[in-house]
Fold these 2 entries.
Entry 1:
Amino acid sequence: AAICADGNNMELNNLSITLNTSTTTSVAGGLCFINSNANIYNSIIHDNTGGSVHVYSGIPTFAYSDIGGSGAPANWNTAFGINYGANIDINPNWDANQKPYLCSPTVNGGTAAFGLEPLDLAGNTRIYGTVVDMGAYESVASTQSTASASICAGIGNFYLFHNQQFSTAGQYTILLPGAAVGGCDSSVVLTLTVNT
């Protein structure tokens, strides 16, 4: 296991545990607990060979975490311990470095109620957006771009962008479904000037 709590009641906050391998079927690749009542908050435990969690004894508690194989939120696997709430079991949608894409279900999925460090593992401010993210990294990506264009005033003149026609001066937000990395939606803020 990446972490095996043996007889201690540790608190684990904002962890990303992934791609670990267990060499035995009796230990998960992610977390194992022996006589431990650990608390796990704001964490992602996914894609570990041998599973995410194995509890020998003790009762770990999970909250605001994405736990692979847990069945959260509707079908929590009680063999994992206690579902304190706001847990999910969804592909975290992150890049090869375990950093979440902006549309990851882990973005803004945590809580500061259990305390948090001011910076993430990469040195970024821990809360970027509205709420702390689950996992070791905050998503600091943006899927919004800006564009400016101008057209001449006159009947029939327009600016064509993403199969949409614009003929009135102003600012427009155009949604581009699935166009950003990670399959996230992207948007462009278009500022159109009409010259007279």
Entry 2:
Amino acid sequence: LEFRRVLFRSDNYLISCSQDGTARLWGMTTRSCLVRYHAHASPAWQVCFSPIGSYFATCGYDRTARLFTVANQQPVRLFVGHMSDVRCCAFHPNASLLATGSDDLSIRVWEIASGRCVRLLCRGGHEASVCALDVSSDGALLASGGEDHAVLLWQLSEGRLLRRLRGHLGPVWSVSFSAEGAQLASASRSEEHTSE
């Protein structure tokens, strides 16, 4: 079992996704798997917790993202529209939207309640796979990192590209806004980092 991503929900729980397409909820006090979710028929690349409630999302090789509740082993919502692997996902702070990034070079923003794609971010965007996403704490900005060595900053309400940050020498695997949203950190395969 090769894990692709792990993420703490609190000191009590950890969630993971793996090559076998599953997501697993782990109890930290018992140090055991509590629930195994049937996320994807092929590798699950990433998992992310909703900032509100007991929801989490997975994304994978099968070109989909899926929404789960911790209480249900089957997805409660399926997000379909990408033309290639869905590599990354991130919730909006109010948990009403989910952003997904793909090998098809696009970022899609989905409405959680309906499962409908409400934004397609690709104009002037990444020139290679989208590998990382994060939404600022006020929900105004979306940061994306890609295999094109770039970090892009988007205005989420209009889906407009605000800025392209260059400087990485390798694919950008992680982007993260500071808690107040004033700073953005990114990490790449080349092991250097930038902050702006």
